[in-house]
Specification:
The mean pLDDT is 93. The chain is α/β, with parallel strands linked by helices. It contains 13 helices and five strands.
């Protein structure tokens, strides 16, 4: 758990003296303030998404990094991107202080400045790459050192913090600041701060992927068909875009090695699997490829 400095709260609830339903109600009421707080940062989320989307579109690498709860959220977000959007795993890295050991909740490494610097330096980043540094307080030494190292390498830094006016925000090219206030369980940033960071990361990465051309309409055109459920989803996506029966979509996908964009191009334009795959790779988005074929 990442810690935030908090002072005494004279109105603090005595959670241990309340019945369980009252504690649940307090926790849920606190969560209600999160979405309005995140919405107030919509402009900076969009600014970050532009930088991140352009990085992805132009072949750059993305590192999401943090310590404690923030680090676990960063790693979770990074883990979702390759399968959902077809991004090569080596282009999207999630790093948390302490590595697998931090899953035990000890978080001893969040104060390790050298470890934060080493973690980013090891990725060999440069201009055109983006680091998303996540820290509830914006003061975590590990995350600040990671951001400093990224900036020194020429990479772009996006900060995701749950406080205002922090050192991490000051270092960032774009600082997404969502002050969420005091936690019901004082200092436990896995609660409202964690919820805010999760919403921000979801909005940031999904918007960036849309900008990078890795969605078509509201469809995950580049979803990796790694299991039966996802193969069924890929078939439905291709069938909807191409306006064809599921059986035809399935045949096109198997012919195109489960490349959704190529399968659509084969069905719509009558291309061979090889030419459809080549055309799909030559354009940032499926929509661009379809427009090019019309021209």
């Amino acid at each position: 758990m990442e810690r935030m400095d908090t002072g005494p709260n004279t109105d603090a609830p005595r959670l241990d003296l309340l019945d369980t339903e009252a504690v649940v109600e307090l926790l849920l009421c606190a969560e209600e303030r999160v979405v309005p707080a995140v919405r107030a940062s919509a402009t900076t989320i969009a600014e970050g998404a532009v930088l991140l989307g352009d990085c992805i579109r132009d072949g750059g690498r993305v590192v999401l990094i943090g310590a404690g709860t923030s680090g676990r959220l960063a790693v979770c977000e990074a883990a979702e991107l390759p399968g959902t959007f077809g991004l090569a795993p080596q282009r999207c890295v999630g790093i948390m202080a302490g590595g697998d050991h931090s899953l035990a909740g000890t978080d001893y490494d969040e104060d390790d400045v050298e470890a934060g610097a080493r973690a980013v330096a090891a990725e060999g980043l440069s201009a055109g790459d983006v680091v998303v540094a996540v820290a509830a307080s914006g003061r975590t030494p590990y995350a600040v050192a990671a951001a400093e190292t990224a900036r020194a390498a020429g990479a772009t830094v996006i900060a995701v913090v749950a406080a205002a006016g922090s050192p991490l925000a000051a270092l960032a090219n774009v600082a997404i600041e969502v002050p969420t206030g005091e936690e019901v369980l004082r200092g436990s940033t896995r609660l409202t701060a964690g919820t805010a960071q999760k919403i921000v990361l979801n909005a940031l990465t999904t918007s960036a992927m849309a900008r990078a051309g890795r969605v078509h309409g509201d469809l995950m055109i580049d979803v990796v068909a790694a299991n039966a459920k996802l193969r069924k989803r890929s078939v439905a996506i291709v069938a909807e875009i191409a306006g064809c029966p599921a059986e035809a979509a399935y045949e096109a996908l198997t012919a195109c090695a489960w490349n959704g964009r190529a399968a659509v191009l084969q069905l719509v334009a009558g291309l061979s699997p090889a030419l459809a795959t080549e055309s799909a790779a030559a354009h940032h988005s499926l929509r661009e490829a379809l427009v090019a074929l019309e021209g």
